[in-house]
Automatic annotation (TrEMBL):
<feature type="binding site">
    <location>
        <position position="28"/>
    </location>
    <ligand>
        <name>L-glutamate</name>
    </ligand>
</feature>
<dbReference type="GO" id="GO:0036374">
    <property type="term" value="F:glutathione hydrolase activity"/>
</dbReference>
<protein>
    <recommendedName>
        <fullName>Gamma-glutamyltransferase</fullName>
    </recommendedName>
</protein>
<feature type="binding site">
    <location>
        <begin position="324"/>
        <end position="326"/>
    </location>
    <ligand>
        <name>L-glutamate</name>
    </ligand>
</feature>
<dbReference type="Pfam" id="PF01019">
    <property type="entry name" value="G_glu_transpept"/>
</dbReference>
<feature type="active site" description="Nucleophile">
    <location>
        <position position="306"/>
    </location>
</feature>
<dbReference type="InterPro" id="IPR043137">
    <property type="entry name" value="GGT_ssub_C"/>
</dbReference>
<dbReference type="InterPro" id="IPR000101">
    <property type="entry name" value="GGT_peptidase"/>
</dbReference>
<dbReference type="InterPro" id="IPR043138">
    <property type="entry name" value="GGT_lsub"/>
</dbReference>
<feature type="binding site">
    <location>
        <position position="399"/>
    </location>
    <ligand>
        <name>L-glutamate</name>
    </ligand>
</feature>
<dbReference type="InterPro" id="IPR029055">
    <property type="entry name" value="Ntn_hydrolases_N"/>
</dbReference>
<feature type="binding site">
    <location>
        <begin position="376"/>
        <end position="377"/>
    </location>
    <ligand>
        <name>L-glutamate</name>
    </ligand>
</feature>
<keyword id="KW-0800">Toxin</keyword>
<feature type="binding site">
    <location>
        <position position="348"/>
    </location>
    <ligand>
        <name>L-glutamate</name>
    </ligand>
</feature>
<keyword id="KW-1199">Hemostasis impairing toxin</keyword>
<keyword id="KW-1202">Platelet aggregation activating toxin</keyword>
Length: 459
């Protein structure tokens, strides 16, 4: 509820065992037709919340397109559990309860007439607590309408629900039109692929997602790590430096329908450039505080929340889906008539007037344009072995942390031979170059933390 939903977008990597092929479903949100690069000039906060922050959602259309191509169950059956929960009560679990009780989030929700209406009705005006339930009858009716519609998702995009949905968005200051919804298309894309030295093959999502960044990370690190089950502090250094080089390249990527990204993509897969990067890392046990050393020219915006789900079917098929409305409760607004909580994905774009505190200009590749999709860190990934059997299905949540988290789970499982639970549970590090500091999770081995402290990672 707080991280994803029909008001957001989704990226899927779908692997079909019988053909040995992977397919990418791009149902990322896109900018409205009236959007432009200077729309947030003088008020960057408007990109983070409120009607202007809402991009055209793609989630439901992504589900419809995926079902049209690969679905087995009848469309209407897929919605019944969610409809039942919306009508009879959605349990408030620990994570949702903690979010609603947060001293910063609670007042923001109450200040939003639309969102507070959805979350407090039937609660005496109070936000629900852990252990209580939330009923969402409007969303139940929306799901019922979509489930019974012969055209599926088009009930929302160009059908019975469209006018009221658009009217709700316009009433909170949004600029999405009926035409924006009617013209929205989820896109099938070719996956990013990488074959490891051992014959395993990786499939992930291309730009505007981060599959190419993930492939660059594992390409640089392959053959450089200790490959033991015990933490090697020099492996830690190699990972941190690789992440920094990768995030410098990320700033050159945008929606390929609007930006020529071939030069940077070709650079990232160049064996010569990968080897040059390896050599830079190997010939020094130090890190550098000057971001220009890593080749950064621009900065990108941070993305935030997300939910990731992985499914491995009995027939060997696999799906990895990453879904988001961006920050917690998205734009802090909702469509009251449909019960849909709305995204704030416009905040994932860069704005030309905003130079960050490091003096690095924003990335032109990620400037707003009509119908453009913003850059994303998500990288839903499927890895198969030489026979074509699924070896690993992996993705992550956490905004800009997604790509480094996914890389480390792959490293832990494929190279350190951790089982799935160990690979996911082992504490991780994160470095995205700007800001120039290393993050580590609670429980990270002390020897690694001590090494980082003495190697000037903590500035």
């Amino acid at each position: 509820m707080q991280n994803m939903g029909l008001g957001g977008g989704v990226m899927m990597t779908i692997y079909e065992r019988k053909t040995g092929k992977a397919y990418i479903m791009n149902a990322r949100e896109r900018a409205p037709g009236l959007a432009h690069s200077k729309m947030f000039k003088g008020n960057a906060n408007m990109a983070a919340s409120g009607g202007l922050s809402v991009a055209v959602p793609g989630e439901l259309m992504g589900y419809w397109e995926a079902h049209q191509r690969f679905g087995q169950l009848p469309w209407h059956e897929l919605f019944q559990p969610a409809i039942h929960m919306c009508r009879n009560g959605i349990p408030v679990n620990y994570r949702l309860g903690r979010t609603l009780a947060d001293a910063g989030m609670g007042p923001d929700i109450r200040a939003s007439p639309t969102l507070s209406y959805l979350l407090t009705k039937g609660q005496g005006g109070n936000l629900p607590c852990q252990g209580e339930t939330i009923r969402m009858p409007e969303l139940a009716e929306t799901l019922s309408t979509v489930a019974s519609c012969p055209r599926g998702a088009w009930a929302l995009y160009d059908g019975e629900l469209t006018d009221s949905f658009v009217e709700d968005i316009r009433s909170i200051g949004g600029i999405i039109t009926n035409e924006d919804l009617a013209s929205y298309r989820a896109e099938w894309m070719e996956p990013v692929t990488h074959t490891f030295a051992d014959g395993n093959t990786l499939f992930s999502a291309p730009p505007p997602c981060a599959g190419n960044i993930l492939v660059f990370m594992v390409s640089v690190l392959e053959g450089m790590l200790n490959n033991s089950t015990k933490l090697d502090i020099f492996d830690l250094h190699k990972m941190a430096e690789t992440f920094k080089f990768a995030y410098a390249l990320r700033a050159e990527i945008g929606d390929p329908a609007y930006v020529d990204i071939d030069p940077v993509i070709n650079k990232m897969v160049s064996k010569q450039f990968i080897m040059e990067t390896k050599n830079k890392i190997l010939r020094s046990n130090s890190t550098y505080q000057n971001s220009s050393y890593y080749g950064v020219r621009y900065r990108t915006s941070d993305d935030y929340g997300t939910v990731n789900i992985v499914i491995l079917a009995p027939n060997g098929d696999a799906v990895c889906a990453t879904s988001t409305i961006n920050t917690l409760f998205g734009s802090l607004t909702a469509s009251v008539s449909t019960g849909i909580i709305l995204n704030n994905e416009m905040d994932d774009f860069c704005s030309p007037e905003i130079v960050n505190s490091f003096g690095v200009p924003p990335s032109p590749a990620n400037f707003i344009a009509p119908r453009k999709r913003p850059l994303s860190s998500c990288c839903p990934t499927v890895i198969v072995d030489k026979r074509g059997d699924v070896r690993l299905v992996v993705g992550a949540a956490g905004g800009t942390h997604i790509t480094t988290a996914t890389a480390q789970v792959i490293i832990n499982n494929l190279w350190y031979n951790y089982d799935i639970k160990q690979a996911v549970d082992f504490p991780r590090i994160h470095h995205q170059l700007l800001p120039m500091h290393l993050k580590y999770e609670y429980g990270y081995p002390k020897v690694g933390v001590k090494y980082c402290a003495t190697s000037f990672y903590f500035s």
